[in-house]
Design goal:
Shape: globular
Oligomer: single chain
Strand content: 15-25%
Strand order of the largest sheet: 13-12-11-10-6-9-8-7-14
Number of helices: 9
Length: 333
């Protein structure tokens, strides 16, 4: 484990549940190391104050990179160079597209599997919704509207880029973003900058992603999935789903006939959780199943880069093609 803050300690639980034996922990903070030894019942002999020394001493099968984003590239490349076979990196994957490319290339050259910790495909709040939107009753997903708190484009917004890609089977093609004029200080430190505001993304086929994460919003995350024949509302923190769709005899009517008879349901789903889906990610990675790869993580970073460029230019549309700046670094946490 490289980085054992609050998220790193959750990763220890997930890795243990997935069948791993903890072989070493590193953090630049002595306080974080001490807390982890106690909270996670870790032998003091497994604590290191130098990540490179830990990799050389332990020679682990797998490594989790759970530091802040500016050091992700350094530690992922170090793990690949040390012969680690499985590498799981927290999000955002890196602070620049060049770093993403370097991480992917070095892991590929070393024969290491690289995953980004975007666990959406293992979370009920997305797997259930994907199955519903693809039914004839709902008729296919056309928009995903996220009304959230001030959770940061990089901190949490990047998760929704991956969720949207998973749900639509398409990548975001274009993004427009409008930054709030005032930025709330980042809780992880003044050196980090993560913007709030509003965002609109669109795929090549025209499916829309809209995120409202205003700086003046302080509670909750709700998502409305708009389909050809109905809508699905998910309260992700409460674990609540409400769905409504046209009766079969009205499905072929024009979309302007939006008030026809409908079927409705409500049910509970698992509340948002980070530990269990990460455990499932590990199991998929180890068994050769589908998991969020470094390329998937790079797409989320590309969307973040496009959003920041757009926000800096009053919402100008930015395409996610080859024109994005590769070298520019952003101070995401």
């Amino acid at each position: 484990m490289i980085g054992v803050g609050r998220m790193g300690r959750r990763h220890i639980t997930a890795a243990r549940n997935a069948g791993f034996e903890l072989a070493g922990i590193f953090d630049q903070s002595a306080e974080a190391l001490a807390t982890t030894l106690t909270e996670c019942n870790v032998d003091k002999a497994l604590a290191f104050d130098d990540a490179t020394q830990m990799l050389q001493t332990v020679r682990p099968d797998a490594v989790v990179i759970s530091t802040t984003a500016p050091s992700h590239c350094e530690f992922v490349c170090a793990a690949a160079g040390a012969g680690v076979r499985y590498i799981l990196c927290e999000k955002p994957m890196a602070c620049s597209l060049e770093e993403c490319d370097r991480m992917i290339a070095e892991c590929r050259a070393a024969g290491a599997k690289l995953a980004a910790n975007h666990q959406m495909r293992f979370m009920e709040q997305y797997t259930d919704i994907k199955a519903l939107t693809e039914t004839a009753e709902f008729g296919g997903l056309r928009s995903m509207v996220v009304t959230a708190s001030n959770f940061g484009l990089a901190m949490n917004g990047c998760h929704y880029f991956e969720a949207f890609r998973y749900l639509t089977n398409e990548e975001v093609a274009e993004i427009s973003c409008w930054f709030d004029p005032n930025n709330v200080p980042n809780p992880r430190g003044p050196q980090y900058v993560d913007r709030s505001g509003q965002l609109r993304g669109i795929t090549a086929s025209g499916v829309r992603l809209i995120i409202e994460l205003g700086a003046d919003l302080g509670h909750g995350i709700e998502v409305i999935y708009g389909c050809r024949n109905g809508q699905i509302l998910v309260d992700e923190l409460a674990g609540f789903v409400r769905g409504i769709h046209r009766l079969p005899e009205y499905r072929d009517l024009p979309t302007t006939r939006y008030g026809m008879g409908a079927n409705e349901f409500q049910r509970k789903i698992a509340q948002a959780d980070v530990t269990k889906p990460t455990e499932h990610l590990w199991r998929a990675m180890l068994s050769g199943g589908a998991y969020p790869t470094g390329e998937d993580g790079r797409h989320a970073v590309a969307a973040l880069v496009a959003a920041n460029l757009s926000g800096e230019n009053a919402g100008r549309m930015v395409a996610l093609g080859n024109g994005l700046p590769i070298e520019r670094k952003f101070m995401w946490a």
